[in-house]
Amino acid sequence: MFTGIVQGIARVENVIAAPGLSTFVIEFPEDRVQGVTIGASVAINGTCLTVTRQEGHRLYFDAMQETLRLTTLGDLKPGDETNFERAARIGDEIGGHLLSGHIHTTATIVDILRPENNVTLWFELPETWAKYIFPKGYIAINGASLTIGEVEGNRFNVHLIPETLRATTFGKATKGQKVNIEIDSQTQTIVDTLARLGYDRPATV
């Protein structure tokens, strides 16, 4: 499990393609790989991956074609930066909200507003997932636990403070960029339960 509190920015050093598999060689800040072991889980842009090899502060991760298809990892290339979070341990503070590291869908940044001292990002996601998006609800974007601001159809925004921009890759976000989305599990459970009970049907006059 993860908390959605991004622990830093890592850099993709190499992507090794093989039939049905891609291996990512990712360079981490040196002080962030202490105690890591083969088989450990690390969220890369919110996607839970398993450490398969370590060389100093470079970690290796394998991703199957299905993972590459469902997430933005297939677009990563050497030099790209990613958010990362190592798996939470029992007793860790949950500063964001509990995440599984299993990506539900991707969204596209459609607008970036820069009022004084913060940034507002607008995202568009597939209509299928819009039913889980509520103002003031939780969402994980590229592994960062964030609070949803406004919602307009299948578009929503989040407001980012300078510390979030500093500690994550959102400080270099661009329009048209795709991001990984993990829907809040509690929200999904409530919405799906109500749907099974018939409460998602439009009211009739």
TrEMBL record:
<dbReference type="InterPro" id="IPR017938">
    <property type="entry name" value="Riboflavin_synthase-like_b-brl"/>
</dbReference>
<dbReference type="GO" id="GO:0004746">
    <property type="term" value="F:riboflavin synthase activity"/>
</dbReference>
<dbReference type="GO" id="GO:0009231">
    <property type="term" value="P:riboflavin biosynthetic process"/>
</dbReference>
<dbReference type="Pfam" id="PF00677">
    <property type="entry name" value="Lum_binding"/>
</dbReference>
<dbReference type="InterPro" id="IPR023366">
    <property type="entry name" value="ATP_synth_asu-like_sf"/>
</dbReference>
<keyword id="KW-0808">Transferase</keyword>
<keyword id="KW-0677">Repeat</keyword>
<dbReference type="InterPro" id="IPR001783">
    <property type="entry name" value="Lumazine-bd"/>
</dbReference>
<feature type="domain" description="Lumazine-binding">
    <location>
        <begin position="98"/>
        <end position="194"/>
    </location>
</feature>
<feature type="repeat" description="Lumazine-binding">
    <location>
        <begin position="98"/>
        <end position="194"/>
    </location>
</feature>
<feature type="repeat" description="Lumazine-binding">
    <location>
        <begin position="1"/>
        <end position="97"/>
    </location>
</feature>
<dbReference type="InterPro" id="IPR026017">
    <property type="entry name" value="Lumazine-bd_dom"/>
</dbReference>
<comment type="function">
    <text>Catalyzes the dismutation of two molecules of 6,7-dimethyl-8-ribityllumazine, resulting in the formation of riboflavin and 5-amino-6-(D-ribitylamino)uracil.</text>
</comment>
<keyword id="KW-0686">Riboflavin biosynthesis</keyword>
<protein>
    <recommendedName>
        <fullName>Riboflavin synthase</fullName>
        <ecNumber>2.5.1.9</ecNumber>
    </recommendedName>
</protein>
<feature type="domain" description="Lumazine-binding">
    <location>
        <begin position="1"/>
        <end position="97"/>
    </location>
</feature>
<comment type="pathway">
    <text>Cofactor biosynthesis; riboflavin biosynthesis; riboflavin from 2-hydroxy-3-oxobutyl phosphate and 5-amino-6-(D-ribitylamino)uracil: step 2/2.</text>
</comment>
